[in-house]
Amino acid sequence: MDKTPKVDWDVQQSESLYGIQDWGKGFFSINSSGHVVVVNDKLKNQKELSLYELVQDLRERGLRSPLLIRFPHIIQSRIERINSCFQKAIKEYEYSGKYFGVYPIKVNQQRHVLEEIVRFGKPFNLGLECGSKPELLIALAFMKNPGSYIVCNGFKDQEYIETALLSQKLGQNTFIVIDRRSELDLVVEAARKLDIRPRIGFRAKIYSQGSGKWMESSGFKSKFGLTPSEIVEAVDFLKQAHLLDSLELLHFHVGSQIPSIHEIKASVKEAGRIFSELCSMGAPLKFLDVGGGLGVDYDGSGHGDSSTNYSDQEYANDVISIIQSICEEKQVPCPHIISESGRAIVAHSSLLVFDVLGSHEMKVNTGALKSEPEDTPLVKELLYIYEHLDENNINEFYNDLQEKGIETRQLFSLGGLSLKQRAKAEDLYWAIAQKMAILAKGLEEAEDIYWNLQDELSGTYFCNFSVFQSLPDSWAVGQLFPVMPIHRLDECPGKRVKLVDLTCDSDGKIEKFIDTETDEWQNYLEVHSLKKGETYYIGVFLTGAYQETLGDLHNLFGDTDAVHITMTESGYTVDYVVEGDTVTEVLSYVEYSRAELIESIRLLAEEGIRSGRLSNKEARLLMRHYEQGLSGYTYHEGPEGEL
Ligand SMILES: *Cc1c(COP(=O)(O)O)cnc(C)c1O
Question: Are residues 324 and 282 in the same domain?
């Protein structure tokens, strides 16, 4: 629906409308041309790069929309930030242990991302956390820093355990974390067999109840970890095996994206107690691994599941100070702290850009507002509502309108309404809805009506991407991501729309957006009208964590093109281009062979030619399209600027 267009509009208004300062954390902003820019504070010149110009450049080079763009300097900056928060806390509290981060590979396993994390993490001895055998195999090949740690979590078989033990001979500092009691037997057995001293961690089940979308089930229900009684028994077991000095680490993980600092504090307290008790029982623990959970402020609101009510610094301060006070109280040495923040390291570093392919909007047909002799009673009643609607009867007329909407369809089905009269009734319906929405805005007693109407009246932009492939958490758990146009931000966005993707699935859409006015979410996005001959680009931000490998091939839309962009003093360089899937590749994942498909079509075409249904020329054109289709991108491939 068109808002009353504001005559003047500037980029500051766009900044506050989309909340870019709040969730952008200094990495994103808007320039005076109305483009979203990526900011790199480390550079002296050219600190800003226009995303819109970048996307146009990249498309000229042959890259396609949807396009995933990664910025390594953001990864670097996040690694530095989290480490400096812990260093600051250690200094401030005069904490006697050290801090070591480990990056959990599952958050983004892409090789180029992992390489950058390892490279930028080296000065901080950032290690790796693996939750499976394949992740361990990656960690062993990429971690080449004798000062960092590898933490092995997840279900472990003998091969996993023996590989982890043997990796110590490669110079790796590998901890094997006992997630289930039975794994301890396997570790002890393998250590004896290979004659390698294991470095063991216990994962504790934490009972402090948390909240948020990604919480592990707590206490007895949690999938991993040892209960207090298992811990006590396991310590005895290690003692008897003369391996108690191998127990170096205590680990816990209560879940990802913990929205509230109170929950973090509660779980750290509980773990700190377990730690000090274990020390008192004679376990020579030296490390406490506080797991993941450090959240990302996806909506900039500072509260709710998509945000956090704490800063990185508060997180570090609380972890350090709580452990310190428990250890001092119990007079046990303060452990080195390990944390497993993945989301907080990579979320900001990538974003998805796609083009809008077309739109569907509710248009008010003013011709319907005149009464005509052939009008049926239903149309007359709707005209009456339109003319007499005001602030005092809005509730009553809203209910009438809903009824008339149903009546229109019923009457038509029963043959009581001509197609022309049905069209007029529906045009009137939308005209009333629009007038009503304007009246309802700001009326306290009509707030529900306002939001219902906004929902009904918002149009749709058809977008060139797949939610299932590129934003799985938006679909699966209703996660909010920052979404906004990347250009024309010096113009007033006069439209409100939902975004639907290319899949044929009714869930293939984004209908949850940041609402900076209420700090909640809204079911539409403010956008600009599409212009003929100019591609309109929308960006989805903060997609670096978890979105890439959870994505699926719904409707066989495959991986998108991806690029890594390093900003430089004079512009930027394209470090990597990872081409997205071709149709042939996606089809091979579900066991179709290109050669067989082509052969099958060729035989059908031969048959068509023989029977005279198909000319030679048509057959050639069909084969060319078929083969090009197989080699092409799985997404919409229009020439740039085509609408
Ligand atoms: C998934 C996982 C993490 C990652 O946590 P984030 O807060 O999402 O980065 C850390 N540790 C373990 C054990 C995990 O399973």
Answer: yes
pLDDT digits (tens, 9 = 90+) for 543-574: 999 998 777 888 889 999 999 999 999 999 99
Helix ranges, 309-352 (H): 312-330, 343-346
Domain that holds residue 295: 98-341
Q: Give the atom of ligand 1 at the shortest distance from the alpha carbon of 106.
A: 1
Question: What is the average pLDDT score of the chain?
Answer: 93
Cβ–ligand 1 contact at 151 (below 6 Å): no
For ligand 1, whether the C-beta of 129 sits within 6 Å is: yes
Q: Give all strands (DSSP E) within 440-548, no chain letters.
A: 459-463, 483-485, 495-500, 509-510, 513-514, 521-522, 525-527, 537-540
**Mean pLDDT (whole number) for 358-380:** 88
Q: Is the pLDDT of residue 54 over 50?
A: yes
Determine the pLDDT at residue 217.
66
pLDDT tens-place string over residues 257-307: 999 999 999 999 999 999 999 999 999 999 999 999 999 999 999 988 899
Q: Is the pLDDT of residue 643 over 70?
A: no
78 lines ligand 1 (CB under 6 A): no
Q: What pTM was computed for the model? A: 0.91
Atom index in ligand 1 nearest the CA of residue 214 equals 8
Which of 468, 465, 389, 376 has the alpha carbon at shortest distance from 425?
Answer: 376
Nearest to 291 by CA among 40, 101, 515, 119: 101
Residue nearest to atom 5 of ligand 1 (CA): 292
Which of 425, 455, 485 is a domain's end point?
Answer: 455
Q: pLDDT at position 218, please?
A: 63
Q: 25 in ligand 1 pocket by Cβ < 6 Å? A: no
Per-residue pLDDT at 640: 52
Q: Does 343 contact ligand 1 (Cβ within 6 A)?
A: yes
CATH number where 236 lies: 3.20.20.10
CA distance 144 to 171: 9
User: Which is more confidently placed, 450 or 563?
Assistant: 563
Q: Does the beta carbon of 341 lie inside 6 Å of ligand 1?
A: yes
User: Do 104 and 184 fall into the same domain?
Assistant: yes
**Tokens at 494, concatenated:** 């006069």
In angstroms, rounded to a whole number, what is the distance separating the alpha carbons of residues 274 and 204? 8
List CB contacts of 293: < 8 A, sequence separation 6 or more: 253, 254, 255, 256, 257, 258, 264, 267, 341
Q: Do 147 and 283 sit in the same domain of this protein?
A: yes
Write out the two tokens for 293: 């959970």
Tell me the two tokens of residue 20.
């870019």
Q: Say yes or no: 305 and 413 in one domain.
A: no
Same domain? For 191 and 287 the reply is yes
Q: What is the pLDDT of residues 215-257, one digit of tens each?
A: 766 666 677 899 999 999 999 999 999 999 999 999 999 999 9
